[in-house]
Backbone:
């Protein structure tokens, strides 16, 4: 059984016209998993609904505690991309699990989102990777502590 935790981030953003801005809404993860052909073999739990720039050290401790308390050996976490690498690095303190973080550069509700691809890719990577903490985004897998988000290129890359 794969444990999935949601934390918010762009993947779950909704555009609120009255406010002229994006906000974190209800997660579409069950729909996205079904669209990717994944219908069973997971447990889903929402940990929080935050943009990753708003995540605090306490939030990261909450994520780490949820991972530690889970019985699952394989854990998928949806997370905002801006601080995903920081959370992944914190999770390296949890040994003996395969943990994959993923998200989206465009909200799942948008037509040109990368959410479904990233989710399916992360699901596959999670089942193939050895224990450790990884980021799976846009067809690439990076080890925690060896990755950064390139804001200009809008992609993840190996850290120098």
Residues:
């Amino acid at each position: 059984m794969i444990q999935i935790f949601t934390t918010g981030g762009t993947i779950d953003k909704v555009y609120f016209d009255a406010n002229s801005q994006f906000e974190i809404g209800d997660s579409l993860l069950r729909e996205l998993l079904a669209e990717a052909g994944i219908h069973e073999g997971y447990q889903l739990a929402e940990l929080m609904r935050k943009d990753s720039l708003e995540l605090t050290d306490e939030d990261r401790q909450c994520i780490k505690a949820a991972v530690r308390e889970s019985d699952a050996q394989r854990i998928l976490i949806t997370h905002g991309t801006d601080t995903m690498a920081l959370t992944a690095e914190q999770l390296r303190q949890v040994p003996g699990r395969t943990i994959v973080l993923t998200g989206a550069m465009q909200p799942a509700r948008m037509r040109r989102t990368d959410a479904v691809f990233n989710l399916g890719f992360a699901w596959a990577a999670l089942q193939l990777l050895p224990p450790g903490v990884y980021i799976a985004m846009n067809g690439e897998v990076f080890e925690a502590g060896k990755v950064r988000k390139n804001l200009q290129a809008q992609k993840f890359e190996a850290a120098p």
Observations:
- The longest strand covers residues 42-50.
